């Protein structure tokens, strides 16, 4: 029987962020940069199986028209076990709780190549498509 996944909101520490971030092979930013990012996030979510942290995601946004999913990471040994789905479900619940009745908001992200299918199964549309161009980004360095 698979482990039960529990989600905690707004308990993600910079140290745990870095542990989960690097577990998926991403190059880590400095801890001061992580601390600033966490302090300015709309919400953070951490997934646990038992007492082991196995995933995280940050939500950023303007609270009115647009929210953005950032730093969505599930440790490789916990992937394909419902952790990502539990994180996404809790994140969407949070978005719905923050918007006005009748509002529709844009929930956006940039996917890694291997995660496109996961997001499509959860209602996200790949870009480009018939009505929109590709997602884009630019890194700005000091």
From TrEMBL:
GO terms for molecular function: N-acetyltransferase activity. The keyword Calcium does not apply. It comes from the Bacteria. Gene3D superfamilies: 3.40.630.30. InterPro entries: Acyl_CoA_acyltransferase, GNAT_dom, NSI-like. PANTHER family: ACYL-COA N-ACYLTRANSFERASE (PTHR43626), GCN5-RELATED N-ACETYLTRANSFERASE 2, CHLOROPLASTIC (PTHR43626:SF4). This is Acetyltransferase. It comes from Bifidobacterium criceti.
